[in-house]
Amino acid sequence: MNAPIKIFAGSKSEKLAAEIAKAAGLKVGNSSIINFSDGEFEVAFEETVRGAHVFIVQSTVPPADNLMELLMMIDAAKRASAYKVCAVIPYFGFARQDRKDRPRVAIGAKLVANLLMAAGVDRVMTMDLHADQIQGFFDIPVDHLYGSSVLLPHIKELNLENLVIASPDMGGSKRANAYAKYLNAGLAICHKRREKANVVGEMTAIGDVEGKNVVIVDDMIDTAGTIAKAADMLKEKGALSVRAIASHAVLSGPANERIEASSLEEVIFTDSIQLDGVSPKIKTLTIADIFAKTILNVYNNESISSNFII
């Protein structure tokens, strides 16, 4: 007899967790969080999880309290005798700190992996990690899903002629090439030089974009400096239209204003991060179905590879 399945939501992913649970034919379990005046908080499950296969949905967007909340929910589930605990992390925070790119810096993604395992998590489910090698930071199973499952069908529905897929930087060229091959489209790569973190200096494009409808593909958009500058540069080089798609809408600082003022016609994200009060150019596509299918596949010990497009 299988252990019962239960889905719970962290405070930063309540809407997505509800949609995932609905798509899986389940309901979000009852949990609570009590905030103290000094900034501390306490999490609790308001129903039994004894012997249950528990899935906790929480994107670890800044601030770090959201990560701490997830860790405490994992710990609470383990101490309440849950059979298995899976952390469902649609957006994995600190993923940009995946290596030592200069002396005397932390590898934040590895530290987060250590914290999750120390809390007692049995499995991690995430989407579009900034660096694929982060999966190797864990000594437990990691299910790495892809936003392309919902983003690629949306691009096809646009029916754009003379389509070119563009990468906003050299690091994203592999992802852009995979999209271009699947869509039988052209490929362009934007080359940028950063002056410092979140500040882009000069930028140019490699590839033919004149008279083309360009879609820029990335894993996340943070301050939108790179995307906005790339869109303006591509328009100057003769692109008919420029759109952007990305899995994660971090959108910090002046991101909304930059998107609104840029040459971008629209920006499409998944709902891995809950958005409120954003630019009218921004649209979101839900990933609830793909996560619901994967959760059920994992619960039933079935393959999840059929859920991927590329």
Automatic annotation (TrEMBL):
- Amino acids binding ATP: D38, G39, E40, R96, Q97
User: Where does the Ribose-phosphate pyrophosphokinase N-terminal domain start and stop, copy by copy?
Assistant: 5-120
Q: What EC number(s) does the entry state?
A: 2.7.6.1
The catalytic site is made up of K192
Binding positions for D-ribose 5-phosphate per the UniProt entry: R194, D218, D222, T223, A224, G225, T226
For binding Mg(2+), which residues are annotated in this chain's numbering? H130, D169
Indicate the quaternary assembly: Homohexamer.
Q: What is the protein's name according to its record?
A: Ribose-phosphate pyrophosphokinase
